[in-house]
Amino acid sequence: MANKKNANTVTQFLNVHLSDLHVMYTKLHNYHWNVEGRGFFQLHAKLEELYDGVAGELDEVAERILQLGERPFATMKDYLANAKIKEVESKGISPDEVLSALQKDYEYTIESLKNGIDIAGEADDPVTEDMLTGMLAGYEKNLWMIKAYLA
Ligand SMILES: [Fe+2]
């Protein structure tokens, strides 16, 4: 188990990641509701699968923060103040625009997770490292699918 000081750098990262996941969760619902045009059925269903996945991840991240002896952010105020992923307004959006926007958010998330994996590695916290690596694999797979769809 990581020592207390190192655990703090890990939980600081995890709280930012938790904030990003909450904004992503809301954003994926936004697109699920507002996507329109050809490809609607596919994307509407895919977005539901994606936000369900994010719901599982944010719970796992919050509970990891507790295991490390800190408190997870648990208010929308904290999430919005700490997330790097930005919300978007509620308006009609085409499948291609959704996927282009998601591509950017996933590219950011992949870089962020790699940074978190480094932080957990430096803190001798293989459990967090493993958790984040599993999540990274999912985002890399999703990014590949988005690029294939847009190609
Ligand atoms: Fe729905």
TrEMBL record:
Family: Belongs to the Dps family.
Any GO MF annotation of the entry: oxidoreductase activity, acting on metal ions
Protein name from the UniProt record: General stress protein 20U
Ferritin/DPS domain segment(s): 13-150
Organism: Acetoanaerobium sticklandii (strain ATCC 12662 / DSM 519 / JCM 1433 / CCUG 9281 / NCIMB 10654 / HF) (Clostridium sticklandii)
Xref: InterPro entries: DPS_DNA-bd (IPR002177), DPS_DNA-bd_CS (IPR023188), Ferritin-like (IPR012347), Ferritin-like_SF (IPR009078), Ferritin_DPS_dom (IPR008331)
Superkingdom of source: Bacteria
Signal peptide: none
Gene3D superfamilies xref list: 1.20.1260.10
